[in-house]
Amino acid sequence: MRLHKSTFLCIAAVVLTLILAAAAWFLLPDSVGMQLGVSGQVQNFMPKPLALLLPVGLCAVGTGLSFTEERRTAGLILALISPVLVVITIFMNHSF
């Protein structure tokens, strides 16, 4: 079976997401803010393991979809969004 180019992009996104999630594990507090209100204040919190597991799972699903011909584009989009979500989570919750 020959892999499509988008599958390799998805695999790279998985690796990047895992690296970012590992870094975020040490940078983020135990309770991670996930929703900003109109005033700019965090309104909704989530435990750190769940907040980091969601993007990793989303990336894994996207990579799995990239193996099928009819869902390749959707899989690529899901996989490429995942590292962006981890970066947004880090910037939203970490004070530099």
TrEMBL record:
<keyword id="KW-1133">Transmembrane helix</keyword>
<feature type="transmembrane region" description="Helical">
    <location>
        <begin position="7"/>
        <end position="28"/>
    </location>
</feature>
<feature type="transmembrane region" description="Helical">
    <location>
        <begin position="74"/>
        <end position="92"/>
    </location>
</feature>
<keyword id="KW-0812">Transmembrane</keyword>
<feature type="transmembrane region" description="Helical">
    <location>
        <begin position="48"/>
        <end position="67"/>
    </location>
</feature>
<dbReference type="InterPro" id="IPR012867">
    <property type="entry name" value="DUF1648"/>
</dbReference>
<feature type="domain" description="DUF1648">
    <location>
        <begin position="14"/>
        <end position="56"/>
    </location>
</feature>
<keyword id="KW-0472">Membrane</keyword>
<protein>
    <submittedName>
        <fullName>DUF1648 domain-containing protein</fullName>
    </submittedName>
</protein>
<dbReference type="Pfam" id="PF07853">
    <property type="entry name" value="DUF1648"/>
</dbReference>
